[in-house]
Amino acid sequence: MILVSNDDGIDAAGIKALSEALASLDRVIVVAPDRERSAASHALTLHHPLRYTEVGPGRFMVDGTPTDCVHLAVNGLLDERPQLLVSGINRGGNLGDDITYSGTVAAAMEGTLLKVPSIAISLDGFERFDYQDAAHFAVRIARKVIQRGLPPDHLLNVNVPERHNGVPRGVMITRQGKRFYGEPVVEKLDPRGRKYYWIGAEGDQHPQPEKGTDLWAVQNGYISVTPLWLDLTGQELLGELESWEL
After folding, report:
1. CA distance 228 to 225
2. Closest to 2 in 3D by CA, of 152, 142, 108, 158
3. CB 180 within 8 A of CB 215
């Protein structure tokens, strides 16, 4: 059985395309937020109860975050342990530093913490959203992960370029890039003259991101597959901190 979740909500076109495509591999169960939860990161609801509603055969919506959905599914809702979790297909890329905010990636992180091999998949772009290429590749990489598995504490972050001139040029194994943020907060005035702010203005990537990164791959028409590791230890600082004699 394959568990599918997302952060765009259970009615999003991306999760529909993903679940239909993965059904060719195994039984698919969808457990997703009842509404959009983009940029929820790895938030877990602790201070009020969660409720779910079965909205169709094998489809459950939860009044919580993407992390809630995966946690509840694996530890409560499902009648068996999934062999794979796939989160997406997100409407928009999750590249570079943006993965720290991403609810799509966080759902895959939660699956990894629960020892379920996990993939996050996103479709980059802001205009047309044709999920065909991303859904097709999701089946390819899901089949490989089912066959080969993933090391403990590792997950895969996949970004598919928006189709402009034909299919993607190929697949690149990449590292996480860096995104430049110019104006992360937009200040405006309401009709009564009071200031208010929008957080979430799109950051601009460097005009020429470093080759080998997820940003470079997608910008140049390649599907990016980035292995992520949950261990956040700053290895380079360990020895330095020892010398502080704290």
Report:
1. 10
2. 142
3. no
In whole angstroms, what is the distance from residue 129 CA to residue 162 CA?
7
How far is it, in rounded angstroms, from Cα 218 to Cα 128?
16
- The pLDDT score that the predictor gives to residue 21 is 98
The Cα–Cα gap between 31 and 15 comes to: 10
Distance between start and end Cα atoms, the chain: 49
Closest CA to 160 of 121, 206, 129: 121
Cβ neighbours of residue 68 under 8 Å, at least 6 residues apart? 33, 43, 44, 45, 50, 62
Helix (H) or strand (E) holding 240: helix 235-242
Q: What is the pLDDT of residues 73-116, one digit of tens each?
A: 999 999 899 999 999 999 999 999 999 999 999 999 999 999 99
Residue type, 182: G
CA dihedral defined by 178, 71, 62, 107, rounded to 10 degrees?
Answer: 20
pLDDT for position 203 = 52
Mean local confidence (pLDDT), 23-48: 93
Residue-averaged pLDDT of the chain = 91
Q: Are 63 and 38 in contact (CB under 8 A)?
A: no
pLDDT at site 207? 64
Alpha helix (H) residue ranges in 35-90:
66-72
Give the residue ranges of DSSP H helices in 89-208. 103-113, 132-148
Dihedral of the CA atoms 235, 224, 100, 115 (nearest 10)? -70
Reported pTM: 0.91
